[in-house]
Write a structure and sequence with these properties.
The complex is a heterodimer. By secondary structure, chain A is an all-alpha fold. Chain A is 61% helix and 2% strand. The longest helix of chain A is centred in the first third of the chain and has 38 residues, at 65-102. The chains are: A mainly alpha, B mainly alpha. The interface between A and B is medium-sized, with 20 and 14 residues.
């Protein structure tokens, strides 16, 4: 990289006067190049250039040696510094690329673009979805206002972020509800006198496994039914996290009303049934736009038309997912605390 | 009552993939009509690959082809682990 002006090597043999460079210890591996160094390459402006000279003044041997030695070390230090910088930058770029390949960061940022009124209204919507009327997500042509937060999506229309659109899925509520669920079930176990440090890990693992199983099942279903949509996986992850809100409400209300008897009894079952129905209705309405893409919105082509039987199957799959599967998983999650309590109680 | 954790999830998925991978092509799958042999295209029915059955057949043959070598390694590791520590 320093192909500019090479000077002939100095007349006196370099190894004799080559000082032992003890002060430049930043990049030891770059000390090996032999003396033919470029003299025109000192325009890098590196702070090492000023460091090398005066430190070498004291340790030099002959009249030429201090300048020469300082110059050599200056060059090697600069080169090493640059090589190191480039290596680090290349490594960072590689890491970013390989992270972006699996989880695209801009797409994730889109999901966390929330505001406080949105969060409140969304939680109310999850808990009381019956009167909500327009369920479709708002779209905006990307030509007029290119979205900086999701530049690599292949939409001709892009969806508004959750801050502006109530029907848009976000990741904030699911993530917070996930964490809150873990802490809450641990707290309930503690109130019951059955706290154990393992409870937290067990609950977290079970909740994570529930989400993983759900995502796997959904991906399998979309593969079988050949539903294709852009950025679908993150939408599904977001939607599968909303049930933690209902589970948390069930746990809290049942705990208060039942006075620490767990989520059994008719109170617990009533609350659970209500939250389950609300969540299922919410998912049914919301996922309709993910799993049942409108044939009218897709570009008019002969291959895009979904025949009637296929659409029927998709509707059945949607219903099965949002009622049956959600029932099983919400029941599992809301029974979790008493289950861990019994496990720990047996163990201790 | 503690239902499932990630370890059990791992075991379940390995067992399921094993169950798909041991299906014999000519002894079982061809007999029930799920063989990988290309079915003759009927009139206008070129959308065989889009149907549910076509997808399942495609998935099974893909798993059988792709996961054979990794499954040997994974199964060996799990067996050794279970023998030593289980």
């Amino acid at each position: 990289m320093q192909q500019g002006s090479y000077a002939p090597p100095p007349a006196h043999s370099p190894p004799l006067h080559h000082p032992v460079p003890q002060h430049v210890s930043t990049v030891p591996m770059m000390r090996s190049p032999p003396p033919p160094q470029s003299q025109g390459g000192s325009n890098y402006g590196s702070p090492y250039g000023q460091m090398g000279g005066p430190a070498q003044q004291s340790g030099g041997g002959g009249p030429f040696a201090p300048a020469f030695g300082g110059f050599v070390n200056d060059q090697t230090a600069q080169m090493g510094f640059q090589v190191g910088q480039k290596a680090v930058m290349a490594g960072q770029e590689y890491m970013e690329q390989s992270i972006n390949r699996y989880v695209s960061i801009p797409a994730l940022k889109h999901y966390f673009n929330v505001s406080t009124p949105y969060v409140l209204r969304k939680i109310l919507l999850v808990l009381f979805p019956w009167r909500h009327k327009p369920w479709s997500r708002e779209q905006r042509p990307s030509s007029t206002a290119p979205d900086p937060s999701a530049p690599n999506t292949a939409y001709s229309y892009y969806f508004l972020p959750p801050r502006d659109d109530l029907n848009s899925p976000d990741m904030y509520i699911p993530v917070m509800a996930f964490v809150t669920y873990i802490l809450l079930s641990t707290l309930l176990a503690g109130l019951r006198g059955a706290f154990h440090p393992e409870v937290m890990g067990l609950t977290a693992t079970a909740a994570f496994a529930v989400v993983a199983v759900e995502i796997l099942g959904l991906k399998f279903g979309t593969y079988i039914l050949s539903i294709s949509n852009d950025s679908q996986l993150l939408d599904l992850v977001a939607y599968s996290g909303y049930k933690f809100v209902g589970v948390i409400v069930t746990l809290v209300v049942a705990e208060i009303l039942n006075r620490g008897k767990g989520t059994g009894g008719w109170v617990g079952w009533t609350v659970f049934t209500y939250t389950f129905l609300a969540n299922a209705f919410f998912l049914l309405r919301s996922l309709k736009y993910v799993l049942l893409p409108d044939s009218s919105s897709t570009p008019a082509g002969g291959m895009q038309t979904v025949d009637r039987a296929q659409r029927n199957r998709r509707t059945q799959f949607l219903f099965l997912y949002s009622y049956v599967v959600q029932f099983v998983f919400m029941w599992v999650l809301s029974r979790q605390d008493s289950a861990t309590a019994t496990v720990v109680g047996i163990k201790t | 009552m503690m239902l499932f954790g990630l370890g059990n999830l791992f075991y379940v998925s390995i067992l399921l993939v094993n169950a798909v991978a041991v299906l014999s092509e000519d002894r079982f799958l061809a007999r029930i009509g799920w063989g990988n042999a290309p079915t003759e295209p009927s009139f206008g029915g070129s959308s065989d690959a889009a149907s549910v059955k076509g997808k399942m057949i495609n998935l099974i043959s893909s798993v059988r082809t792709l996961m054979r070598i990794p499954l040997i390694v994974i199964n060996t590791l799990v067996i050794v682990y279970e023998l030593v520590l289980g």
